[in-house]
Structures are given as structure tokens and as C-alpha cells.
TrEMBL record:
Gene3D superfamilies linked: 3.30.450.40, Histidine kinase-like ATPase, C-terminal domain, PAS domain, PPM-type phosphatase domain
UniProt keyword terms in alphabetical order: Hydrolase
Organism: Streptomyces asoensis
Stored NCBIfam families: sensory_box
Ranges of compositional bias, category Basic and acidic residues: 24-34
Domain of life: Bacteria
This protein's name: PAS domain-containing protein
Segments of skewed composition (Low complexity): 8-18
Region (Disordered): 1-34
Keyword Hydrolase: yes
Domain PAS span(s) in chain numbering: 203-233
Length: 913
């Protein structure tokens, strides 16, 4: 909710420019659908309060509270219920049905109270269907608010402008006896305040010099002085202490205020101090002489003088359980104790009304008291001021009146004394500090458009009010801070979980942006730095409105990136806002030079630029992404035009940036190592399978383990000489990189030795020696090696050596399956091997299937596929191509068990065409 003030103290006229023509309004009134009051408003507006509510459902309840608090503060309890009902209906129409902001303005005059509710959807007209009597049943949604206005309000109407639609109503005040302002409800006897004896109310009158001029009998009984003993003496001579406890307002100053309530002590004739609760009222007699009437009761009987609406907790040390008063509590409208924003907003509104100002503002101090942050204002551009920060210490362009009360009669004579009021038209201002236990917690100010409006008297009144509200504000601020910290911890825990759940660089960048928008900022940009010598690169941009992402990305790509400074914390970056402003200005100037053509062509040409300028025109901050003592990027957060970040959000963003930086660096390291690993693994895989005349060759390979392309199983098919081809399939003990290292040794050694013209057994014996030479790094290896010679008759001759490997299976055309070799010792265990080769002839249509033990040892519980199970599957492959055979075998292996394979698998199928 934002609030504002109508300048100049003028009441809006229904015939202002932009309203509907009078004959149209008269027609509406003539039909009885709308009653528009065209009589001149002669009543002088004596007070006003305004607020703006966002188009969300909770705004209806907030608007009701605003109207209730305003009328309660004005003393109009008799009409509160009617006003709240009507306001609720009209605000619901605006924020729920019209879907726009709702502006509520309360105007007080001698005749009554006028409340105006405006929305920003003038095209959505009020439902008019004949008279109010024909609008439908009471259950009908449309028109119900107007029916209530007609039934309850004394006068009401509807007014249109090009940008707003306003529904207003006026409630007349009931006739009351003179002097009656408001009264509390009748209470049962057990709820009335307790008094331990006859209640005595001392009535003391003080003249303009501060001397006692009247002293009643109850005063004599309470303090022991006869009237002639104290008449003519200053009241301060009887005061037990010079200042009211807990405030910096002295009794002398309090006696000068028009109305005051509080506690102090009176020293009696016996020398003892009697704590009293006093209510001071400043009056003027028939001769025009001012004086002050003081009503005093014993402090524990303070409920006698208190306003019934105020019921805070009892003060520490109070001798009774009677309620403690806080005069400023009713002044601010008694918000919920944990509603800091509502408390601050009501405070500035009542402060403005108390001093009859045009605007008011309240700032809260940071924990170190070095800066003040704007938290509430009225009558000022709230969006531009909210969360803006100014230094506390005095100096040019700084907030020089934070620690002491200050009155500036004319800001034109001291430019920059109150930076928040620059360019607002305010001339005079009074500011007072909010302090708790001597510590600066904030500052409260009231300003006016005219110069010379405020003096030290107004400063004292405002200071007293600030002293009474400071503790409540600080308590609510600490409560809000605690809730923010709890929310921040939950946010950071969730962010850490999300960031830890991925090692993909692009996904990490996306998560960083999505966690900040819109929770922390309106838009976000992530810059990354590849190495120390590289410039920052714009890697990711996100805005809560997806249609603006391309425009922001284009804008940021045209300006220099922020400097990669490793200093922790957020720093302001003004380049995006300046570039957006310049771009919007150039577009506007170009549009002014365009002539002819439809209007929409002009607006469409400048629309995206203006929208982008508005999106990035607010405060932009940069947080370094530092990981392992190196800046790896920058996280840039931005707000739309004239908005600022609050300090708690920046601290949370800093915590997030540290976690995000580590996650981004981990993703970078993982990506680099994965790329290196994959490059090395790909070097272990054989190149493309050679084409062999008359023979189909198909290979399927699956490496166990995430991210592995090569494991302990390997295969190779390669030409040895003209018309002779070598093939191999093997399995190194184990899986992963260590097994892959032996894989590389075996595959490359096979090619070199075979092309030297050695026989199959000689090739494997030399390979066995090479493996044993690796020493501790050696691993045993099972290997099926063979040489193939296609024949002119269409068959193929194979010479095979099976060194500890699963035996190859031969599938004949008639569907029979048989082993095509005999088992021999594996490699890498013994030095002296005696291997021999076997000759196999494949007839046309025959298939030779070679697999690793990852296929045959596929398990599901206690069951294992085994050699027999593989043979059974192979018998179903008669007539299939080599590719179809390999695919069917792999599918059968995968379906045999539900778990993912835990061992590498390789399938080599060769079929004579």
C-alpha cells in the first residue's frame, strides 16, 4: 500500500477537465442509475488522508483497516461501520474485478466525511440497467456496491477521467451534544479498572509563566500542600525530576503543548515523591490569556484519565495491573504489533495530520547507525524514496539532522539539507530523531510546501510523539528482522540444495538467476570470466517479465561489463540505468521527428526501448562471484525505475552469491574434467568399422558408470593386410579409468603386432608380456582374437584364439548354436603361455557372436543369464542381419534384470552374407 496527499488542500471538483460531459452525467442521473451531486462544495475540508492499494485480494482488508483507523482517529466512531462496508465493496470492485490499483481518499469537513475510491480502468463502466431497483437480486455481483451507496450514504456519485473512474460517497455526522466527541462502550463491572481507595483527581491550573494559579482540595489531599502554599510557585519546583521518564521532553515543554499525557512525580509536603499520571490541556480564558489545566491522579490509577481505546501492557514496576498508556498509539491508529509497514505508514500519516503538513517521512537506521533507510512516506513519490539510503553524519548532500531535532524554515536557503525532499517542492521541514536507550533508531520528518511553517514548538510536539512511538517501532523492526532472518535461512538452505543438485554449468547459471528473480530483484544478469586474461562475458539474463529479457540483454551487451572487483559486498552500478535513460531519450527524440502514418507505428517503434528503460532504470548492484580466491564472474541485480534495494535483501544476496560462486566453479571444474576424460576415452575407441566384402559386422558397446564412454571391455575390427582382417573382443579386470588404461594398451598393441605378420598365438603372447611389464598397474585380461579371410565361394575362414574369454557362438542357418572355439589361459597372469589357434569356417548365412562376461553374467537376484541363456536367445535370431542379431541380444540382456548394468558390456556380431 502506498499513500499520497492532494497538494494545495483543495477538494477535487466533479467538473474537473477530463470528466464526462455534463449532459451525459445528467442523463445518467435522470435514469436514476447514478446520483451525481452537482452542488458546489462549500464545506471547508479540515483533514484528509489518502492511500493507494495494490490489485491483490488482501488489499480489501487493508483498505478497511485504513478507513477504520482514519475515522477512529478523527473521532467519528458513529459512522465507522457504514464507511467500512461501503469502502470494502468499492475497493473490491477496483482491485478484484477491475484488476487495478485502488486509491482511497478520506476527506473530513464540518458536514461529515466524504470517501472517494478510484480505480484506473475508466473503460470498465458502472453497470447501468435502468434504475437501482432493477440491477438484480442482492446476490448479483455487479452493482451491489452502488446499491449499498444508495441505501446507506447521504450522497454519492460516479465520476470519470481519461485515466480514472471514481466512486464517492458522503456520510453525515449524527447530531450530538456539544462537547461530546466519542465514548467507550459500557463494560461489566469486573472489567472496570481497580482503585484501592477513593479516586482523587488533582486539578491544577498553570498560567502562561508556568506558575500555579489554582489548586483544588484533591491536590491538597494527594500532596499535602494547601492552596495558599503553592499558588504563584512554578510547578517545576514541585516536580521530582526534570524530564518525563523515557523521553527527552521536559515538564516545561510539556506544559506548552496543546494536549499532553504522561507520567512524572510530585514531591509532597512530607518530602516523599508521589508518582502521578497527568493529562494537560492548554486553554485560553475570556481575556485571551493562555493557561494549562492539569489533571493528576496517582500513577496506578492512570486508567481514570486514559482513552478507553488504548490498552497496552502495564509498565514495569507499576504497583497495579492497570493499563499503561501511550498517547501516540491512538495517534498512529493502533496497528498490529508485528505489522511494521502498517505501523510506519500510519505513523507518517498521523504525523503529517498532527502538524498539518503536506508530506511526512520516516527513516530507520542501519545496525551500525551509519545510514538511514527510507521505510515510509506520505505526500512524496514513495516508489522513488522507499529503501533509499542516506548517510547519517552531517555534510554536503547528507542527512544532517538525524541525531538532533532540526527545523528548516526554507530549504531553498540550505539546499541538500534533506536530500529526500530534493525536487519535491517542499520548502519547510521539521525532523526529529527516534531513539531507544540513547541509540539512534530512526528519524521522523514532516514537511510543507510553504516556507516558515514550523518552529521549535512543532519540533517539541513531534519529538514527544517520536519518543513515545520509538520503542514500538524498534520492537516491530526487530520482529520483522527476525522473520527475515528465518526466511533467509530457509531460502539459503533451499538454494544450497538446488545448486548442489547439478554440475551442469548452464543449469547452474539458470538456477542462480531464477532464485534471485523475483524473490530478491526484478531482473538479474550473470557475467562469467573464463580465466584471468579474459573479459567478463554476459552469460545469462532474466527478468520477471519474459518479454523484456531480449531488450535488457541487448542493452547490457552494448555497455562495458562491470569491473571484476573481488571486494565482498554489493556495489552500485549506474551504467545500465544511464544507458537505458539515454536510449529512451534518443527514441523519444526520434519519435518526435516522425511525421505521418498511424500513431501505433510510432508507439511501437519506441515501446520496447521505453519499457526496457523503465525495467532497468532503478538501482542496480553488482556482487562478485569469488571461488577459491579467484573472481569467476559477477551477479548483477536490478530494480525498475527509481526503486532501491533494502539492506537485508543485499545481505541475503551476498550470502547467495558465495554459494552460487562455489557451485558455478564446481560445475566449471566438472565440465573441464569431463571434457578431458571424454577426449581420452574417445581415443581408446576404435575408428569406424571397416567394410568387409561379403561380411556384415555390428558392434554394441555399453560402459558401466556415469559419464564413462570406455571401461574395461573393448573391441576392435581392423584390416591387417590385403583381404585379411583382424577382430578382437576383450575384458580387462575391473571397470573405470584404471581398466581403460589397460584397454588402450591391449587395443593398440594388437594392431601393431598383427600388422607385423605374427600369428594369432604370437600376438597374444607378446601382448601378455607387455601387460606383465606394467608391474603393479597390470591387470589380467581375457581376450578373443581372430583373423578373417573372406573366400571367393562366399564363405569366410576364421583363425581364432580364445584366451580365457567367453567362447564365441556360431549360429547356423538351420538354427543350431555351437561354440566356435575352445578355452585357453587368460593374459596378464603367467609369463610362459602356450596358445594355439583354431580354424572356423562360416558358411553363407552363418553368424559368429562374440560377447564379454558383462552379457553372460547379467543377474536378477540369484538368476544369471549364463552361456546357455545366451545360446537360447541366439537360436531365435535365424535369418536376421548382424545388426538385428546384436540388437536382439542387447534387448534380451537389458530385460533380464530391472537394475542398471553394473559391468561393461560388448557385443560383436559377424554374419556371412
Amino acid at each position: 500500500m502506498t499513500t499520497g496527499l492532494i497538494p494545495g488542500g483543495q477538494t477535487p471538483d466533479p467538473r474537473t477537465p477530463g470528466t464526462r460531459p455534463p449532459h451525459q452525467r445528467g442523463d445518467l442521473a435522470g435514469r436514476g442509475a447514478l446520483h451525481v451531486d452537482d452542488r458546489p462544495r462549500s464545506s471547508v475540508i479540515t483533514a484528509r488522508a489518502g492511500a493507494s492499494f495494490e490489485p491483490v485480494g488482501r488489499s480489501v482488508a487493508t483498505a478497511r483497516s485504513f478507513v477504520r483507523d482514519t475515522l477512529q482517529g478523527w473521532g467519528f466512531a458513529d459512522i465507522i461501520d457504514d464507511a467500512v462496508v461501503l469502502t470494502s465493496e468499492l475497493v473490491t470492485n477496483a482491485v478484484v474485478h477491475a484488476g487495478t490499483h485502488a486509491d482511497v481518499l478520506c476527506l473530513r469537513s464540518a458536514d461529515g466525511v466524504r470517501i472517494e475510491v478510484s480505480d484506473r480502468y475508466p473503460e470498465r463502466e458502472i453497470p447501468l440497467q435502468g434504475s437501482l431497483a432493477t440491477m438484480g437480486s442482492p446476490d448479483r455481483e455487479g452493482g451491489r456496491g452502488l446499491q449499498l451507496c444508495a441505501a446507506i450514504a447521504g450522497r454519492w456519485g460516479v465520476e470519470y477521467t481519461p485515466t480514472h473512474k471514481q466512486v464517492w460517497f458522503q456520510l453525515d455526522l449524527p447530531d450530538r451534544p456539544v462537547g461530546t466527541r466519542t465514548a467507550g462502550p459500557s463494560l461489566p463491572a469486573d472489567l472496570l479498572p481497580l482503585a484501592d481507595s477513593r479516586v482523587r483527581v488533582a486539578v491544577v491550573q498553570i498560567d502562561r509563566t508556568g506558575a500555579i494559579s489554582a489548586w483544588n482540595e484533591d491536590a491538597e489531599e494527594l500532596f499535602g500542600y494547601a492552596a495558599d502554599q503553592v499558588t504563584g510557585k512554578p510547578l517545576t519546583d514541585l516536580a521530582a525530576w526534570p524530564h518525563t521518564p523515557g523521553t527527552s521532553t521536559g515538564i516545561v515543554e510539556a506544559l506548552q503543548l496543546s494536549r499532553w499525557e504522561g507520567s512524572y512525580g510530585i514531591r509532597g509536603a512530607n518530602g516523599r515523591v508521589t508518582p502521578v499520571y497527568a493529562s494537560h490541556l492548554r486553554v485560553r480564558d475570556t481575556d485571551g490569556e493562555p493557561s494549562t489545566v492539569c489533571l493528576l491522579v496517582r500513577d496506578h490509577e492512570r486508567a481514570v484519565l486514559q482513552t478507553p481505546a488504548r490498552v497496552p501492557a502495564a509498565e514495569p514496576g507499576s504497583p497495579s495491573d492497570g493499563p499503561n498508556t501511550d498517547p501516540f498509539e491512538v495517534f498512529i491508529g493502533s496497528p498490529a504489533p508485528d505489522d511494521l509497514d502498517g505501523l510506519l505508514q500510519r505513523t507518517v500519516e498521523r504525523a503529517r495530520d498532527m502538524l498539518d503538513g503536506d508530506s511526512a517521512f520516516l527513516l530507520l537506521a542501519t545496525d551500525d547507525e551509519t545510514e538511514l533507510e527510507v521505510r515510509a512516506s506520505t505526500g512524496l513519490p514513495s516508489a522513488r524514496q522507499r529503501f533509499a539510503r542516506v548517510p547519517v553524519e552531517a555534510g554536503p548532500g547528507r542527512y544532517g539532522s538525524a541525531r538532533m531535532p532540526a527545523v528548516h524554515e526554507d530549504l531553498l536557503a540550505v539546499p541538500g539539507a534533506v536530500p529526500l525532499l530534493n525536487g519535491t517542492g517542499m520548502r519547510s521541514v521539521v525532523t526529529v530523531p527516534l531513539k531507544v536507550e540513547g541509540r539512534l533508531t530512526g528519524s521522523l520528518g514532516v514537511a510543507a510546501e510553504a516556507s516558515g511553517r514550523y518552529s521549535n514548538e512543532e519540533a517539541l510536539r513531534l519529538q514527544f510523539a517520536a519518543d513515545r512511538i520509538a520503542l514500538a517501532v524498534e520492537s516491530a523492526r526487530l520482529g520483522e528482522l527476525e522473520r527475515l532472518r528465518r526466511g533467509s535461512l530457509s531460502f539459503l538452505v533451499e538454494a544450497s540444495d538446488l545448486l548442489a543438485g547439478t554440475l551442469d554449468r548452464d543449469q547452474t547459471l539458470a538456477l542462480m538467476a531464477q532464485m534471485t528473480v523475483p524473490t530478491l530483484a526484478t531482473w538479474c544478469a550473470v557475467y562469467t570470466i573464463a580465466d584471468q586474461a579474459s573479459d567478463p562475458y554476459l552469460s545469462y539474463v532474466l527478468h520477471e517479465d519474459e518479454e523484456l529479457i531480449d531488450g535488457i540483454k541487448s542493452l547490457l551487451s552494448k555497455i562495458s561489463p562491470p569491473d571484476p572487483v573481488p571486494t565482498p559486498g554489493a556495489r552500485v552500478w549506474t551504467a545500465p540505468a544511464a544507458a537505458a535513460h539515454d536510449a529512451a531519450l534518443r527514441s523519444s527524440m526520434r519519435s518526435l521527428g516522425l511525421t505521418g502514418g498511424p500513431t501505433h507505428q510510432v508507439s511501437s517503434g519506441i515501446g520496447p526501448t521505453l519499457a526496457t528503460a523503465s525495467a532497468v532504470g532503478g538501482e542496480t548492484v553488482v556482487l562478485p562471484l569469488v571461488a577459491r580466491n579467484r573472481v569467476i564472474g559477477m551477479l548483477t541485480l536490478g530494480k525498475p525505475t527509481d526503486e532501491h534495494f533494502r539492506q537485508e535483501i543485499l545481505e541475503l544476496a551476498e550470502d547467495l552469491s558465495r554459494r552460487a560462486a562455489l557451485a558455478l566453479d564446481n560445475a566449471r571444474l566438472y565440465s573441464e574434467r569431463t571434457a578431458i576424460s571424454q577426449a581420452l576415452q574417445r581415443s581408446l575407441l576404435p575408428p569406424e568399422t571397416p567394410d568387409i566384402d561379403g561380411v556384415e559386422v555390428e558392434v554394441i558397446y555399453r560402459a558401466a558408470g556415469e559419464g564413462n564412454e570406455v571401461g574395461g571391455d573393448f573391441y576392435d575390427v581392423f584390416p591387417i593386410s590385403e583381404g585379411v582382417y583382424g577382430f578382437a573382443i576383450g575384458d580387462v579386470c575391473g571397470t573405470g579409468p584404471n581398466a581403460a588404461a589397460v584397454t588402450g594398451l591391449a587395443r593398440h598393441a594388437l594392431r601393431l603386432l598383427a600388422r607385423e605378420g605374427l600369428s594369432g598365438p604370437a600376438v597374444l603372447e607378446r601382448l601378455n608380456s607387455a601387460i606383465l611389464d606394467e608391474g603393479a598397474r597390470s591387470r589380467f585380461l581375457t581376450l578373443l582374437y581372430g583373423e578373417m579371410r573372406p573366400r571367393e565361394d562366399g564363405s569366410a575362414e576364421l583363425k581364432v584364439v580364445c584366451a580365457g574369454h567367453p567362447l564365441p557362438l556360431r549360429l547356423r542357418q538351420d538354427g543350431t548354436v555351437e561354440a566356435a572355439a575352445e578355452p585357453q589361459p587368460l593374459l596378464g597372469v603367467m609369463e610362459d603361455l602356450e596358445l594355439y589357434e583354431e580354424t572356423v569356417t562360416l558358411d553363407p548365412g552363418d553368424v559368429l557372436l562374440c560377447v564379454t562376461d558383462g552379457v553372460t553374467e547379467r543377474r536378477e537376484g540369484t538368476r544369471m543369464l549364463g552361456d546357455d541363456g545366451l545360446a537360447d536367445v541366439l537360436t531365435t535370431c535365424t535369418g536376421l542381419t548382424a545388426g538385428a542379431v546384436a540388437a536382439r541380444i542387447m534387448r534380451a540382456v537389458e530385460r533380464f534384470a530391472s537394475d542398471a548394468p553394473s559391468d561393461d558390456m560388448a557385443i560383436l556380431a559377424m554374419r556371412v552374407a
